[in-house]
Design goal:
Elements (H helix, E strand, L loop, with lengths): L27 H7 L14 E4 L6 E6 L5 E4 L1 H19 L5 E6 L4 H10 L4 E4 L3 H8 L4 E5 L5 E5 L1 H13 L3 H16 L7 H15 L3 H5 L7 E7 L7 E3 L4 E4 L3 H9 L6 E6 L5 E7 L3 H18 L11
Helix pairs in contact: 2-3, 2-6, 2-7, 5-6, 9-10
InterPro entries: A-D-PHexomutase_a/b/a-I/II/III (IPR016055), A-D-PHexomutase_C (IPR005843), A-D-PHexomutase_C_sf (IPR036900), AMG1_II (IPR049023), AMG1_III (IPR049022)
Pfam families: AMG1_II, AMG1_III, PGM_PMM_IV
Protein name: Phosphoglucomutase 3
Length: 319
């Protein structure tokens, strides 16, 4: 694709398949889970980098600051950047098109708070899995959805698309028409069928260029709350049943009350547990004001799961 890009878009390819193994110590998932750059990439300070996964439906961005500290920009921050951009354009176009962001319970609490309280965009939480996000996003004129892992896209309703294309062609007001043209380009560039890392990357690059925003400024929109993912082996994952988009445990009895009591001990904290879809494992997510508190909360919740949901093997050890 590179020959088709304008000269302003300078892209350097790494891990292009000429050496190393596919997905080995690299890729979007590796970078997100390990919070470090992939192998084979020589990062310069404040240089904007991104990683796709093996089938290129996920994307995460990242950079190293001048002190060498690694910064991850995940799906939540990608959704936020796109939402800021779209909200500005929709305001200029002046049509009553409703917009919403769809997340899962794994979205960082800071992103949800920023979208709802600062950007004033409605946020909806659904069960984990792209099909749930996609389905919910179809309910709006403009539906932005991204999983924290970087899989996502933007959906435009047929009515919204028709209205935007019409304004781009026939709008009397110059500012409105220009904004509609940019929205029309966005509709043409984003892949509305499925998460598409290449088209997502081009959308992000276009937004950063149009807004004159650096990767550091993007990263600074909000600060992620420290979070921790753990898993506990259980005899039978079916003992855990959840509700409220997997944020609340129905069975075994007493587990949700225990989680609620543990969460109350820490500031800005949240925790939930959900059974794995494939193995006898219960996944635990926790976030709080500091990494120390987050790790303590995650450990305490994992002990509660172990004792109340039939844990296997030795009890979970402190992090």
């Amino acid at each position: 694709m590179e020959p088709y890009f304008p000269k302003e878009v300078v892209i350097h390819l790494f891990n292009d398949g000429t050496k190393e193994k596919l997905n080995h110590l690299c890729g979007a998932d590796f970078v997100k889970v390990h919070q470090k750059p992939p192998r084979g990439l020589d990062m310069k300070p404040n240089e904007r980098c991104c990683s796709f996964d093996g089938d290129a439906d996920r994307i995460v961005y990242y950079y190293k600051d001048t002190t060498g500290h690694f910064h991850l920009i995940d799906g939540d921050k990608i959704a936020t950047l796109i939402s800021i951009f779209l909200k500005e354009l929709l305001a200029k176009v002046g049509e009553t098109l409703n917009m919403a962001v769809v997340q899962t319970a794994y979205a960082n609490g800071s992103s949800t708070r920023y979208l709802e309280e600062t950007l004033k965009v409605p946020v909806h939480c659904v069960k984990t899995g792209v099909k749930h996000l996609h389905h919910k996003a179809q309910e709006f004129d403009v539906g932005v959805y991204f999983e924290a892992n970087g899989h996502g896209t933007v959906l435009f309703s047929k009515a919204a698309e028709t209205k935007i294309r019409q304004l781009a062609k026939e709008g009397k007001d110059d500012e409105k028409r220009e904004a509609a043209k940019v929205l029309e380009n966005m509709i043409d560039l984003i892949n509305q069928t499925v998460g598409d890392a290449i088209s997502d990357m081009l959308v992000i690059e276009a937004i950063l260029a149009l807004k004159g925003v650096t990767v550091q400024q993007w990263d600074a929109i909000y600060t992620d709350l420290p979070n921790r993912l753990l898993k506990v082996q259980v005899a039978d994952r079916r003992v855990i049943v959840t509700t409220d988009a997997e944020r609340c445990v129905v069975t075994p009895p007493g587990l949700q009350e225990k989680i609620d009591a543990l969460v109350k001990k820490y500031k800005l904290s949240r925790a939930f547990v959900r059974p794995s879809g494939t193995e006898d494992v219960v996944r635990i997510y926790a976030e709080a004001d500091t990494q120390e508190n987050t790790d303590a909360l995650a450990h305490e919740v994992s002990l509660a799961v172990y004792h109340l949901a039939g844990g296997k093997g030795a009890p979970p050890q402190p992090i």
